[in-house]
Every structure is written in structure tokens, then in C-alpha cells.
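Example 3.2
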Amino acid sequence: MSKDTGIYSLREELIETQKTRTALIKWKLILVSVLGATGLGFMESNSQINAELLLCLVPLVCAYVDMQYENLSFRIMAIATFLREVWTPPANTSEMQDYEKFVEITRKKIRNRYPILGRHSLQGWLMRGSSILFYILLILYAGISLVSSRPKIRMWSILPLLIAGGSGVAFTLWMFHHSQRRRKILKNTGKDLAEKRHGIKSTKSGAAPDDVEASDGR
């Protein structure tokens, strides 16, 4: 396989990974909807176990899907960083690298215009925001059930809901911080390799270190 063929295969992998990552959003909503409907009694269940305990699985599903999303995003950013910073295209065939640089510049302008929202793609905010929302709703449901003292609600079934919701919030915040560090390391590594290969400082040296989704949200 030639060098150019390998590079374009890498580009194809980037596109397929983006498609897989987008599909995760759909499956997350489907799984959470099924668990929520069953746990709240909107779907019939023949199980002798308290169906509301199924709501405890919502944070686990969100955490698993979010971890897969972060891993795919990291892979996308790794490929995009390599194409933009490290790869040296043959003469007159730099369109792919030019596109990656265009995406980088565009996202930098968006980040400067919207310092907080511009740090991540809309998909990234959707995944993290939806998880936090589900956790908060779970905690509110358990709290309201405790206050209302409905007969079918037992104390031993409320406590797991509170623990699951609180643990979900803590996990999401931890994963967000961890992914920030991983992507910062990846971006700096790309710059270092670019400097060693080309013998000059990367043109991205002035970019903010927390540009964590520079070209993975297309």
C-alpha cells in the first residue's frame, strides 16, 4: 500500500468514526427512553423486582455511551491533528491538509466569539448536557417521591436512585476534566512532532490549549 493510499485510508477512517459517533446520540436516547418508560410504569413489566430500580441503570447507560463518544472524539482529533500538523502532503496535493487547517481556523474564530460554548461542538454539548439533565431528573424524581411518601415507593428504592443520580453527575464532571487533559496532551504532541519534522514552530502555537474539539465536530 502506498503512502498516499494509507493517508486517504486514514481520512476514510475519520469519516466513518464521525458517523459512528453520531449514531451514539440516537442509541443513547433510545436506551434511556426505554429504561425511563419501564421504570416509571409506562411500559408493562412482568418482573417481580421493583421496576423503578431500572432507573438506576440510566446513569450507567449514559456513562457508557459518553465514554464511547469521548474515545471516538479523541480518535477523530488524533487523525485530524496528524493530517493538519504532522503529515507532509506531496506537491500540489495539499487539499486535505488545507481543509483541516481551514476547520482549525474556523473553530478558533468561533471559540474567540463564544469563549465557553465555542470550546466544544454542538454534539459534545448535547452528549454532556443530556447526561446531566437525565441525572438531575432522576434526583428530582427520587426527592419528590420521598417527600410525597407515595405508598408504592419504598425507602430502599429511593436511596439507590439518589446515589445513581449523584454518581452520574460526579462521573460526567470527572470525565470532562479527564478528556480536557487528554486532548491538550494530544494537541501539544502534534505541535512537537510538527516542529521536529518541519524544523519550524507550528503555526498553531498561538491557539488556546483548551481547544479540545478543534476538528472533530464536523
